[in-house]
Design goal:
Strand content: 15-25%
Bound molecules: S-adenosylmethionine
CATH superfamily of the domain at 7-135 and 160-202 and 251-260: Vaccinia Virus protein VP39
CATH class of the domain at 7-135 and 160-202 and 251-260: Alpha Beta
Strand order of the largest sheet: 3-2-1-4-5-7-6
Shape: globular
């Protein structure tokens, strides 16, 4: 963990979430929508203990990124649609999903599948960005870049939706049927507690962050260069690129749910 935690990160709620994670013995853990494996890395650093990690993702390309990032740690990765998992009922001690609910075509189905494969008494952990609440200008810019990305993915037929509000997330979690649900909010994700660049990230206008967002927008638009909506979305992208120079960029706030089956 970074030795000297910046004030914004210290007051964000991330430390409380890390402490909660530190009370959980994870056992055999399933991570759904693993992508590059960031959440598995965070859990490895924060949980009280664990026996094994299995990450699944519908995208082989994303799992390849996880394979690279997690090459030195014992993690199993499988390409699988989480709407219909090949695991028996009551199989894992912990199931988790991070930043993925708004990527799911049928999120209720996936959350129900996760519940099915979780052992009675097992831990259900969710980390997800949300769209409402007291988010600052730099976070609102993150939301607008995200929404542009959602529109481009939608044009390309890739399931991707705008971030849910806190109430919509609570409603989705209520439907799972978990017990002992605890909810946390944080303006920074827990992984920032381990990032050497966290102090710089306190400044939304730092050059790396502004340049990164501008490049992300260009790269995203390049994916639909031949589409009839390109000109309209490019204008929107250009306007966000101008705004980021003024407001800077910070990640959207995050919600955490801890429940049991
Ligand atoms: C934003 S990424 C997840 C990020 C990662 N969990 C983290 O915390 O850094 C969302 C992932 O969900 C995956 N995904 C979308 N639909 C899925 C499904 N039906 N089954 C499994 N994975 C899915 C996508 O391929 C993508 O890799």
């Amino acid at each position: 963990m970074i030795a000297d935690i910046p004030d914004g990160l210290r007051g964000s709620g991330a430390i409380e979430v890390r402490e909660k994670l530190g009370t959980i013995s994870g056992g055999d853990i399933l991570d759904v929508g693993t992508e590059a494996g960031d959440f598995i890395k965070t859990l490895m650093r924060t949980l009280k203990g664990y026996s094994s990690f299995l990450g699944i993702d519908i995208s082989a390309d994303d799992l390849q990124k996880a394979g690279e990032q997690l090459k030195d740690v014992p993690v199993e990765l499988m390409e699988m649609n989480a709407e219909s998992m090949s695991f028996p009922d009551n199989h894992f001690d912990t199931v988790c999903i991070s930043y993925s609910i708004h990527h799911l075509e049928h999120s209720d189905t996936v959350l129900a599948e996760m519940y099915r494969v979780l052992k009675p008494g097992g831990h259900f952990i969710i980390q997800e960005l949300y769209s409402d609440g007291e988010q600052n200008e730099a976070q609102r810019l993150d939301r607008d870049v995200h929404n542009l990305n959602v529109r481009i993915d939608t044009i390309l037929g890739i399931p991707h939706f705008e971030a849910l509000t806190r109430q919509e997330l609570k409603d989705a979690v209520n439907k799972i049927g978990l017990t002992a649900v605890e909810v946390y909010e944080s303006s920074w994700p827990v992984k920032c507690l381990f990032c050497e660049e966290a102090r710089d990230c306190e400044n939304p206008l730092r050059k790396e962050s502004v340049d990164f967002m501008r490049k992300e927008i260009d790269a995203d638009l390049a994916r639909i260069i031949d589409h009839p909506s390109y000109d309209e979305l490019r204008r929107e992208g250009e306007s966000i690129k101008e705004r980021v120079k003024v407001t800077g960029h910070s990640p959207a706030s995050v919600m955490y749910f801890f429940g049991k089956k």
